Structures are given as structure tokens and as C-alpha cells.
Amino acid sequence: MSRLGPQPAERIDRSKKVKFKFDGKSVSGFEGDTIASALYAQGQRIFSRSFKYHRPRGIVSASGWTANTLVQDGEWPGIRATTERATEGMQVKHMNAWPSLNFDVMRASDIFGGPFMPAGFYYKTFIWPRSAWPLYEKVLRNAAGLGVMKKSQAHREWRTDYRRRHCDVLVIGGGIAGLSAAIAAAREGADVVLIDEDVEPGGQLLWQGHHEQARKLAEEAKAAGVEIMSNAPALGYFDGMVPVWQGSTLHQIRAQRHVAATGSIEQPLVFPNNDLPGVMLSTGAIKLAALYALKPGENAVIATTGDRGLEAALALHAVGVNVAAVADLLPNRSNELTAAIEAAGIQLLRGMTVVEATGNKHLKGCTLAEIDAKGLAKAGTEERFDCDLLVVSGGTVPASSLMLQAGAKAKFNSETNCFLPENPPPGIHPAGAVAGKEELDAAALSGTLAGARAAQECEFGDGSAANAAAAALEALPAPSPAAPSPAYQRTATSKGKAFLDLDEDVTTKDMKYAIEEGYDSIELSKRYTTVTMGPSQGRISQLPSVRMVADQTGLSIDETGITTARPPWSTVPLGAWAGRPFTPAKRSAIHARQRELNSHVKWAGDWRRAYDYGDVKAEAAAVHNAVGMIDVSTLGKMIVSGPEAGKFLDRMYTNRLSDLKVGRIRYGILGNDAGRITDDGTVCRVSEDSFLVTTTSAGADAVERWFTWWLAAWEMEVHVTDVTQGLCAINVAGPKARDLLGKLTDADLTNDGFGYLDGHQIQIAGVQCLAMRIGFVGELGYEIHYPAACGQYLWDQVLEAGAEYGIKPFGLEPQRILRLEKAHIIVGQDTDSESNAYESQMGWIVKLDKEEDFMGKWALERANERGMINTLVGFKIDGDDVPIEGSAVVVDGQPAGRVTSSRYSELLGQSIGLAWVPAEHGKDGGSLHIKYGDKSQTATVVHGAFYDPDQERLRS
Amino acid sequence: MSLKFLSADEAQVQGSFTPLLQSNIEAELVAAGAQIEERDGWRVAANYGDTIAEKKACAESVGVADLSSLGITELLANPAVIEAITTGVAGTAAKLGEAVFAGGAWWCTVKPDRVLAMTAPGDTASLRGRLEAAADARSELTSVTDLTSTLTTFSVSGPLARDTFARITALDLRDREFPLQGFQPGSIGRVPGLLLRQGSDSFLHTFGAASAQYMWESVIDAAEDLGGRAVGIDALGPLGGAVEATTNA
Amino acid sequence: MSFLLNCPICGTREVTDFGFGGEIVVRPESRPGERELNAYNYFRANTDGVQREWWWHRAGCRTWFQAERNTSTNEVLWTAVPEITDATQAPVSPVAEARAAGGEELR
User: Fold this and answer.
1) How many inter-chain contacts (A to B, CB under 8 Å) are there?
2) Could you name the CATH architecture of A161-265+398-475?
3) What's the pLDDT tens digit per position in B105-121?
4) Residue C85: its pLDDT value, please?
5) Which of A520, A663, A880, C3 has the smallest set of CB atoms within 10 Å of its CB?
6) What is the rounded average pLDDT for all residues in chain A?
7) pLDDT tens digits, residue range A323-369?
8) Distance between CA A457 and CA A459 in Å, rounded?
9) C-alpha torsion sign, points A233, A235, A238, A243
């Protein structure tokens, strides 16, 4: 057992046991334990196998700064065992080892593959032959995998959510700086949210002997009205929006002002076997002891560049760890801490550092050596120590990623030996370590300053609190300088890999190799070696990798620069970004009824629509021979009204609409000033001053946008109201359509009273409708527009009344055949962004002599003068071998055009279609060669409709 | 001008035909246990079999009700004409950013030249008539359009109503930014929406009717996750507003 | 991209609420020459810095309005509904005024 007696700051409740499973074995911890602390108490030291070499890995930071302690919890992969609380009944598994953590066969790649697996090895080796990649991938994924995902969302039992939160000031980080900032801002009256990734706010105060102060500050913050969110890491900074992951909810927090109090991250030292379980940062060792009452080891050696390691030595000594030696990189440090160490009888070795760790699955000992004037270990001065705990401390770096994401620039400060963010964008106030204020007093004051200033910028307070904090901060003495650490340490006797990045298994050798190959800037070597690109985003590997590049290139640290860690700054499941998996689908008011009729429903733009009702041929035949009904509620519909409505439509459409008579309908195409067709539809003049304009289903939104845009520029006396979703529309078509409707209405339906292209407001089965005689599907037909609230009712009435005629509802697919028989185009399928009206065989609808300068007129005038280059024509092929849409039209063996629509027409007994062809090949009756797959066919060009070209049936 | 084909309430009994006015999502409501009853000519979800539990949800967590029958009439004109007409018809002038309840309708200004009047189903036709008469009397361009079928409204009521919306919209619903009677357009559930805060914990959420099924699934999912539920209009006050809960039947 | 934009009618919203109409291009008043027509249809200034552009509040009031935005930083300096009756006449904005006064480019 590694558990100590009660510790003053411990966060475990010894009266409550928590039992869970790790790799099937029972684990018993206390409430408040993390997964890792409970396991550590039972003697577990190996928590994972490394990414590439499958080396054993253990606890380093106890803060989730490495991927070493990522585990799988039930369905959740990538859980940080050192920060995730253990809960009763958890099923925890290791992630990257086979068959077990203790014995991993892939370790062979470390022992034998070492020299043969440099950076870029996978890219270079497994890409040839290409055809074998799927096999390589399968094997490599298993070897390098991090956790197991369920195959599909449907198999998962957990849900993820979004939640939006607005506030005046968001404080990121709950250490002394963040708490001080939150208190200052809230006391000025601002609405403040403080987020912190630990289970309670306080940061380093909690394990450095100041836990009572931390709890007091947290109480003050709450009393001031601060909303504190714990276990809530910020994932990034997106133009002022900060996503925060808590539980299974992604909180999207939008604040007016931000305080970045993200603290600092302790850095390791680089030396051979620095990844062995038992090698810990001072943060890790102290947290285990202070928060979880764990004895991190029995015999410890400490290697440090600054005060942190000295503090750790005293803390570990106090809990009964035998500290064999403390190696301080500075040859001449003498302060309260060194005095205390010496007073405690601990061996303090000034001017020494660690050059090697030894052990197989766990640390067994280490070698210390003296350093020279440059700080590098001298050969021949090695001294060996037995130990099971090696505490290292290479100084700290500010956790400035979020500020860098926000646009601040990192600048190396040679006094503090770390990068500090400079010139943050307005509205972001750094506090504490990221402001270069790491000492307790300075951090607190810089927090107060940042919080008060942020509140002031939200118009709370008069700025006096901020000014006072600024003055007090100014009066503090400057902190003592820290020793710069060399890139890495090694002497002639040291053996083994020295790791720059534990997540990605990147060694000093990999980095040398990358630089020798020419990847000699930090941005390039990062991408080549993947250093800092692992789950912990370079938290403890960025500075070592920068030092390594600087060391190898001879550039200064500042010249080398650093890279910006990308979101997410903390590991989160992909579900965090997915949120709630809903897709905004539109459905007509008759949709439910169509589902009951066993329709095949598919996506059509953002609508769910019936593609067919199970028998495409029969549905098309019903329209030709009896009567059919299709739901066309998805058509865009707009009321365009006002004294200038006609004039406005004349400007938008290529043809003239201002002279349309009340109760009449005209087809029109919409274009842009480049002369391209953008949409088409019908326009019905409903009254002197108002028109019902229909658009394609996909174009409804774009046309409304287009109309209102020009109205914003022209300010005409015109109103536009989009009623797309308010009107159901059904097209009742077929030779029996008139008889059928006659049963439902008293209105005059005779050809004289209600002719082709008439639009009348009539009552059908008691419902007020606008019935329009339009012939998209080629038979006598009525497109009936009526209120969606009566959608299902009228649909039912028509089906019932049509039963005696053999009515069939039909879907989109039969409609596509029927319209193709009429050679009616579908904008966006038969035309594209390069199609003008002339080449699309619709020159008849362009009225260049109109009074208004309509959209596209100037370009169409030129197109008309120039003549056609390509043209859209119909074609037919005997037989039912239909060339697929997209087939090539071939001229002289070269592709010269393409098929845009093609179907087999049961009615005509032929395959028919539309195709773009060079104009000289588009003459009526000419022949085309169409190639698809390995087939080639000859088609005959047809101008005009394939079916009923004289429109006798339409007008009957 | 009259565009009767936009108005479901213009439907009338014709011989053997008796038109039904219903919600786009009646099938979904019934599947969720709704008891459909006829009110003011509309088939509505009156309750889900337990009106007390439904009222309790509105008082203690959140209740979501389909109010497809809510009348919505659009008035388009320049701001001065709008002010003159609304003052004449309801004795009030609507303001941007907030809704005003007057003359049996919520007057909601979407933009200075576009106002929506929301009414109980039984009042929609008569209000439309009065607005049309007032519009006809103006020389300036003025349009009155029935959007009852175009827009669907849900009532979302209860102490967790704002929490429900926080899961599907970026609108800032804090008291300071969205006070009582606040009215703001914005994206809700990735669909253009209009939000009216008609009581301290009671919202009307209006959006395009074709999205009704999607929105129902989305809002109910968020509400149920917070302990809320679907409620019938019997659990609500007039115009879908929250009423004080009664614990004894 | 998740910056905020101020709709002149509805107030501040996430940019995802809006549709983008591109930089402002003035339509020729009468039949343009070929070069002018092509420039109007296809040529854009693609400014690196502050440019005037069209936006519309797609998910809200559906009003078209104009904005001045720094294309490098996404900082939005000005928004307004154009009060114009002639497409060739541009509304006055802070940046336009500064330019006219010979002032420095605003950032």
C-alpha cells in the first residue's frame, strides 16, 4: 500500500469506499480518488504502453499533461485517469497494449526496431505498394490505436449536448489569479463565469500548502455572484466564443471580455530513459502526496533547474520519502529552500543534473553528473543512485495556448526563460503566469487588475479598483531569475532513448534526423516528427522540442519560435463537437400521410420527399391514362405585391410579366447579370397588384434572397412575402383530372371557363384554393395551392374522389420521367452556372425589347449576337438501355458534351434524355455518339417535346 | 385584394365536405399520446392524458406545447403607416425588440416595416378583416397576409424553459438582454426563429411550418433531458402562456 | 469563423445567423461596354483589410444590410441598412468618410 496517513489538503473521503474494475481486476479507492490515484494506491505503476515503441508509461504530472494515463472508461476512450474521478462500478481498461500492460509484444519495436524506425518511418515505408495500404493500415491502427470506439452513434448509450451561456466576463482558470480576477470583476457588478479544469478551484494553491486560502477565495467568489464551473476545461478560443467541456455537455460561452488565467505547466528534463515509470514532474509527485495521500516512492532523487524541485524535496521528505539526493543545475543557489534542505540532512548537489535513468518496467536508479560552464554534463563525473522515484523539474512555461489562438504572439523572455504571449487582441486580459506573474502575490494582484479592467470595459466600475491593483503590482520586487536548461543531457556512458514528446514517442534522435533531412524550422519539424501533436498538445513537449531545434540549428530560442496548439486544448470525445445529432429537415404538411402510403422517402435539398410509392411505371402510367396526384408543396412560393410589382418582375425575369392579365399564368426564367439561368417557375397574377411567384424547390430561399436584395438596393414599391411553408400544393394531373375535381367543386372547370395557364381562386371540398392549369408532367393538370393546415384533409378528399378513376399518388421519380417526356428542364440538373437561355433552347423566353433593363439583359444581348457554342438538346435511343446521367457525348473520339437527364419512357418505348452538345451537332434529327462505361450508343437529336409536342393533351 | 387561398379559416362546410384544420405534426403528437380535440375549428392536442402532470411540468421543469393553431397575421407597410394602423386597430404602437399585447393580440415587430399579430385561433379572421379594412383605407402600399399556416408556434413554459433554449440557440436570454415581453428574431435549432417572452418563464417560439416535425423532436429531446415533457393546451393559459400550477384537480 | 455581427435591426448575433452577399459591386446604370460588363460580373477587389460588403440576416429579420469588415481580422466596424434609392449612390460610412478626408485606412 502506498497510502499515507491523513494529509491536511487531501481530497479523499476515507469513510467512503469506491470500487471499480481495471482490466477486469477489482480496485478499491476512496471517494475523491481519481482513477489513477486509486490504482497507484494499490501498486499500479504502468498505466499505458507508448504510442510507437510500446514502452511502459506511468504517472508524470498527475494533471493530464501527457497521454501516459489515458484509459478507456466503458464506452469512452481517451479518459485522463489522473483527473477523472473514480466512481462506483466503473469499467476501466488500458488502451494501447496487447495482450496486457505488463507484457506487450509490440515492445519488440522498441528493442529491435529502434534504429530502423526513425521519424517519418511509417510514411516512407508503408506507402508502397499503394494497393497494400489497406492491409498496412489495419495492422498499424491496431498497433498505434488509442482506445476503441463503437461503430455507430446508434450503438452508443451516452448523449452529448450543447449549452449556450452568455456572460460579461469569462475567467479561464481557477488558480489564485483567476479567482482574484473573478472576485474583482463580480464585485464591480459584472456577470462572471469562472471555468476550471480541476474538481475544485484553487489551482496550485490546493497542493502547495495553501488549500485553505483557495477555499476561502472560492467562497468569496461565490458570495460575489461568480458562477464557478469545475471539471470544465476550455477547448479553444474562437473569435470570442469559448467552448467548455463539462460532463457530457459542450458549453459554448460567449463573453464580452475574457481573463486568461490559465496558469503554467512544469517542464521535464530530457535525458535517456526519461520516460520510465517512476520519473515524475515535481507537480505530479506533490499532487499525489498532498491531494491523494499517496507516497509516490520510497527512495527519491530530485533533479531541478529552479525552486520547484527544492520545494518538492522538502514536501516529500516531510511525508516520509527518503530523499537520497537533490541535484540543482545552478551551481550557486543559496536561499531559504536550500538552507531548509541542508538543515533536513538531505544531500544537496549543486551544479549537477541527471544524465540517465535505468530500469526495465520501472525506475531502478539514475545517474547524476556535474555540469560544465554551458550547463552540459561532464564525462567522468557520473555518480549512480538507486531510487524508485526521480523527480524532475525543468522550470515552467505559461499555458498560453488559448491566448495564442486568440491572436497573441509568443515572445521569448530571457529573464524568465519562457515564452510569454504579447499583444493579445482587445478584450483579453492575461493574469498570473501568462502575464509573467508567477509568484503568489504578483499572480493575485495581476488577477485583480485583469478582472477589474475587464469589468470596467463592460461598463462596470470606475476603474479605481484596477488602478489600485496596477499600482500595487508595480511596487512588487522583480522575481529572481531561473536557470536556462540545455536541450538535453547525456554522457558517453548513458544508454537509451531520450524523449522529447511522450505522447508521440518522439526522441532527440528523431529531431536530429528531421533537421538533418532539412526540416529545420519548428513548423516543419513538428509536422515531420509529429512532436507536440499528441493528445496533450505539447504541454510538456513544446519547450523541449524548441530547445532541441535551437540546439541543432544554432538559432536562439526566440528565433526558433513556437507553434500554436490547435483546439481542442483538452482531450474530448468527438461527440463534444457533434452535440445533439439533429438535421433540420423540412417536411410538407402531407408528409405523414405519404409515409402511411408506403412511399420511399429521400432527401431532396433540405426537404424529405416521397420519391415513389413502390411502382414507378404504374404511377407514371396513371398520369397518362387516368389521373395521378403529386405533392409539390416544396415549390418555393412568394406573394409579390404592390403597384410596382409587375415592373419589378420585368426586371427580374427575362420575359415580360407586367402585362399578364389577372387570373393568367406565365412561365419564366430568372437569371443573373452574367446571363446565366439561376431558377425558373411560374408567375400567376392573382389580383391587379399581386402575383404568386413559384420557384424550384431548391431555389426558394435563394430567390427570396435575390428579390429582397435588389429591393433593398432599388427601394421599389413592392412587398415580398415568402409563403412557401404555408401553402400545400398538389398537382392533380391526367385525362380524368377535370372529372375528379368536378366532384369536389362547383367552379367552372370547362376549357372555356378555366383554360390552360389560367389560375383561379376556387373552393375545393370547402377549402379556398388557388388552382392553376399548368402542364409540367404533360397531361391536363391542376396545380392546387391551399393552406397547409388543410393539407392532409384535401389530399385525402382528392384520393377518395379519385378512387373511381384509378387515381394513384406519384412521387418525384415518375415525375422526372413525365417531365422528360415533355423535355422540361430542371434548373441545376440540366443547366449549370455556365448555361444561358439561348444555349438552353429558351431564347423564346428572352424579351430583349423590354422597357426595363432586366437581369442578364446585357450579357444575353452579347450571347445572342455571338451565337451558340454549345446547346442543350433532347435525344432518343431505341430500346431500354439508358445511358446514365453524366455520360459523355463523343465527337471524333473526344468527349464534347454530356448527358444531363436520361430515363426510359414506358409510354414512348424509348430511352430519352437531354444533353449538352456542340451547337453544330445539335440539329434536329442529327445523330450523337454517347459513351458510358464501356458502351457506346448512337442517339437521335430531338428538338421540342418527345410527347405531345403540339400540347393538344395539355390544352384538352 | 384578398388572398383567401392563404387562409385556412376561410374553409367552410360545402355540401358533404367538412374541412379539417390541423397541425402539420398531428401524427407525431398523437404518437406521443396526445388527445386531439376540436377547438375553434382546429384539431389541437388538448392534453396527453394527465393534465395535472402537464401543469406540474410547466410549473417545475418545462412543458412544450404545439400551438400550430395560433393565428399569425403579417402587416407590411412603412413604419408610420404601421403605427397608424396598429393604433387604430388595437390602440397600441409596437416597438422594435419587444412585443405588445393589445386588442387580443401580441404585436411583434420583426423589423420596422414588418409586424406580426399573434392571436387566439378564434380571433384571427376578425383581426385580419380589421387590418385589411385599415390597409384598404391607406393610400400607401400596405399588405396584410395570413401566415397562420406558414409559421408554427410552440409554447415553451417553465423554470427550465431558458435552459431548454440554451441547448438549441445562441440567443442571449438573460433578463437584462431579453426582458419580459422581449421579442427577437434569431436562429433557433439551426432554423430561422422568432422568440417572444410572454411570461417570466414562458416563451412562444415561432418558425417555418415545414420544420415543425424536426423542431418538435429537437425541443422535446432537450426538454425531456431536463425533466420536462410535451403538454397539451389545457395545461396552458390563453395564447399558450403559463398558468399557476394546481396540485389538486 | 465565429465572430459576431451587429444586425442593424435585431442587434448582435453570431455570424452563423447571417448570409454573406459579397463585396459591394455597383450595377451599371445603362448598357455597359464588354470590358465594363465583365468587370462588373467577374472582377472583385478582394481587399486585404477593410471592405464594404452585403450581409443579410438569414436566420432573423431577413433584412439586407451593409457592413464594413476587416477581412484579415474579421473585426466589423460598421453596419447599416442602406438608405438609398439609387444603386449607384453609396451610403456614407466612417471608412468612406475617412478616405474622403484623406485619412489613414482604419483598422
Assistant:
1) 186
2) 3-Layer(bba) Sandwich (3.50)
3) 999 999 999 999 999 99
4) 42
5) A880
6) 91
7) 999 999 989 888 899 999 999 999 999 999 999 999 999 999 999 99
8) 5
9) negative
Contact C3 A673 (CB under 8 A): no
A887 Rama sector, left if φ>0, alpha if ψ -120 to 50, beta otherwise = beta
pLDDT band at B7 (very low <50, low <70, confident <90, very high): very high
Q: What pLDDT sits at residue A321?
A: 97
C22 to each of A707, C19, C25, how far by Cα in Å?
A: 16, 9, 8
Q: What CATH number belongs to B72-146?
A: 3.30.70.1520
Total Cβ atoms within 10 A of residue A533 = 19
Q: Is the pLDDT of residue A869 over 70?
A: yes
Cβ A818 vs Cβ A859: under 8 Å: no
According to the 3-state scheme, what is the secondary structure of A449-511? Answer: HHHHHHHHHCCCCCCHHHHHHHHHHHHCCCCCCCCCCCCCCCCCCCCCCEEEECCCCEEHHHH
CATH topology of domain A865-956: Elongation Factor Tu (Ef-tu); domain 3 (2.40.30)
What pTM does this model have? 0.91
Residue A85: Cβ within 10 Å count: 17
Architecture category of domain A590-634+726-836 in CATH: 2-Layer Sandwich (3.30)
Q: Do domains A161-265+398-475 and A268-394 have the same CATH topology?
A: yes
- Fold of the domain spanning A13-126: Ubiquitin-like (UB roll) (3.10.20)
Q: Which of C5, C27, C81, C88 has the most A C-beta neighbours within 10 Å, making it the best mutation to test the interface with A?
A: C27
Answer whether A582 sits within 8 Å of B221, measured CB to CB: yes
Structural domain boundaries in chain A:
13-126, 161-265+398-475, 268-394, 485-582, 590-634+726-836, 635-723, 865-956
Q: Are A904 and A911 in contact (CB under 8 A)?
A: yes
Contact yes or no for C10 and B185 at CB 8 A: yes
Say which residues have a Cβ less than 8 Å from residue B204's Cβ, sequence separation at least 6.
B67, B70, B106, B118, B153, B154, B155, B156, B195, B196, B198, B239, B240
Partner residue opposite C64 with nearest CB, options A425, A673, A709: A709
Instruction: State the architecture of A268-394 in CATH terms.
Output: 3-Layer(bba) Sandwich (3.50)
Please check the confidence at residue A156 and state whether its pLDDT lies above 70. no
Grid cell, residue A881, equals: 438501355
Q: Which of B78, B98, B110 to mutate to test the interface with C (most CBs of C within 10 A)?
A: B110
How far, in Å, CA of A827 to CA of A672, rounded?
Answer: 14
- Please state which architecture CATH assigns to domain A485-582: Orthogonal Bundle (1.10)
**Which residues from chain C sit within 8 angstroms of residue A712, using beta carbons?**
63-65, 81-82
B203 close to B118: Cβ distance less than 8 angstroms? no
